[in-house]
């Protein structure tokens, strides 16, 4: 089985960050962050909260990575000589199954569904268990219409599969450059059509999605018991992709088509040597453009910091949604290509795969962790038995929240480590694969017959029997590769003088070069500059920790 490690690592990283962000949001007492007390915040607090807000946009990265995997899978099958129609039908069926799962997860099984809410029942609270059940039972009926990440991914897989079918017919599969250009143009078209899609949804259902039914606090995005009929349910089903909160296809299909373009480039027979470099610079250019756009919107009074802070997940409420989208996707593109440069283009996939196995486990079981986030409720309940800790029934302080977040990540790692020993049987990925095999069958009619409950792909991914794809040309010790890695370390060390985390990467890269006796003038410069960058970054953190906030009004 061939895999690109960067794709797995980014997916796993997204899920780990999701666990951290949701835990932090659920546990941290943010009452001190108010307009009256914002002046009491230290700069380091503000930067931390800004970082969390930015990381919340990694839902777009998860969508992008999912579509990249979709493209790599379908093109991999086509390269093996599979029939185009069968490949596309299989992908569409997978998208439809995922859409069904999305409704079931969001309404019933998932973190925000009926079971997920009941799982956090607090025995020491005022409400009884029966009261909690009655309060959240209506979610089974309406919450599935909340357009979340899985809905977006499912619809994107269906749409991107249809676009692939249109492009790949009559030899179009081999026209990589044309296909990449088409996907980029489609991504831009999505951004251009987004306001029209929102207006169309508002015409069909006035005030969609945030208006409420008369006499009810239920938003019109959801059906209302006794009011919404079957035909209206169908209308709401198709309005979700247009403008349903929180991740409608307009504009989030933009991320999907960018993922299609990146997936196409990665699946070329010989990806260009300069692909990673160009991708990093393209991402940085988009980041700067988006940031300038945000500043411009705030300077001209077209939007405000407060509006952005209050409506992070309500994209239709932000006038500056377009520069925010560009700012977010730019950093994510740069991250993907930087990881490709550090791993695949250095021939280091095997080393990183072995070292970062815990992250890969989160990637393998990403849907399972996404669905059953409330598996952490027993741990949070036990921790709340400690005197002074209130992380189950109520909020707690910053230090306690950080400790609890770390413990929950370790807790999930233990669950996945044990689950992997039985091939993730019973997980969402396992159930999804079993259903897909039952509906579509396998591609290998002559292959050895497996037991129905064994999903070989899940076993192989965990056990590491994978052919990791490397994009480096020639041996690591060749002069050209040593020079490329030295230049990379040097450039990262320069950038690290502005953004300290890059100094850490540059230091690790330069240290590795020196340890393996691949040193040179560039490597020594990178080694020294990276240490300066780490020192300056540390000093800056100390200054921000003792400086009052002057950014947040």
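Q: What amino acid sequence fits the structure above?
A:
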């Amino acid at each position: 089985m061939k895999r690109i490690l960067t794709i797995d690592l980014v997916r796993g990283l997204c899920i780990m960050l999701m666990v951290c962000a949701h835990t932090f949001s659920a546990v941290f007492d943010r009452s001190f962050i108010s307009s009256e007390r914002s002046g009491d915040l230290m700069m380091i607090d503000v930067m931390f909260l800004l970082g969390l807000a930015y990381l919340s946009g990694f839902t777009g990265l998860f969508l992008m990575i999912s579509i990249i995997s979709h493209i790599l899978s379908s093109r991999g099958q086509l390269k093996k000589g599979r029939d185009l129609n069968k490949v596309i039908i299989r992908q569409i069926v997978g998208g439809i199954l995922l859409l069904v799962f999305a409704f079931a997860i969001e309404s019933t099984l998932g973190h925000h569904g009926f079971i997920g809410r009941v799982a956090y029942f607090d025995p020491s609270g005022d409400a009884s268990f029966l009261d909690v059940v009655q309060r959240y039972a209506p979610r089974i009926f309406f919450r599935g219409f909340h357009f979340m990440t899985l809905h977006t991914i499912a619809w994107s897989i269906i749409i991107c599969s249809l676009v692939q079918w249109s492009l790949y017919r009559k030899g179009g599969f081999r026209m990589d450059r044309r296909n990449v250009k088409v996907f980029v143009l489609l991504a831009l078209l999505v951004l251009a059509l987004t306001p029209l899609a929102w207006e169309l949804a508002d015409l069909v259902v006035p005030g969609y999605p945030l208006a409420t039914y008369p006499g009810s606090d239920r938003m019109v995005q959801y059906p209302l018991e006794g009011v919404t009929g079957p035909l209206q349910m169908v209308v709401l089903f198709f309005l979700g992709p247009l403008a349903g909160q929180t991740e409608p296809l307009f504009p989030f299909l933009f991320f999907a088509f960018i993922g299609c373009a990146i997936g196409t480039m990665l699946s070329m027979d010989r990806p260009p040597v300069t692909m990673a470099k160009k991708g990093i610079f393209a991402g940085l250019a988009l980041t700067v453009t988006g940031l300038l756009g945000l500043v411009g919107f705030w300077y001209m009074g077209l939007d405000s910091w407060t509006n952005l802070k209050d409506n992070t997940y309500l994209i239709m409420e932000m006038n500056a949604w377009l520069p925010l989208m560009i700012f977010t996707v730019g950093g994510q593109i740069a991250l993907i290509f930087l990881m490709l440069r550090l791993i695949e283009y250095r021939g280091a996939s095997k080393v990183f795969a072995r070292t970062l196995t815990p992250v890969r486990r989160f990637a393998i079981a990403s849907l399972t962790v996404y669905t059953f986030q409330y598996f952490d409720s027993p741990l949070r309940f036990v921790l709340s038995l400690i005197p002074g800790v209130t992380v189950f029934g109520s909020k707690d302080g910053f230090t306690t929240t950080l400790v609890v977040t770390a413990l929950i990540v370790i807790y999930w790692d233990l669950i996945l480590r044990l689950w992997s020993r039985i091939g993730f049987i019973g997980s969402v990925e396992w159930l999804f694969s079993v259903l897909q095999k039952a509906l579509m069958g396998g591609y290998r009619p002559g292959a050895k017959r497996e037991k129905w409950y064994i999903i070989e792909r899940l076993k192989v991914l965990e056990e590491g029997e994978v052919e990791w794809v490397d994009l480096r040309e020639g041996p690591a010790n060749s002069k050209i590769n040593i020079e490329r890695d030295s230049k990379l370390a040097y450039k990262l060390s320069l950038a690290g003088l502005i953004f300290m985390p890059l100094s850490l990467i540059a230091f690790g890269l330069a240290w590795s070069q020196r340890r393996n006796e691949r040193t040179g003038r560039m490597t020594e410069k990178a080694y020294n500059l990276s240490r300066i960058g780490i020192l300056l970054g540390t000093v800056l953190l100390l200054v921000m920790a003792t400086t009052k906030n002057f950014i947040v009004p």
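Q: And what stands out in the fold?
A: Confidence is low (pLDDT under 50) at residues 443-447.
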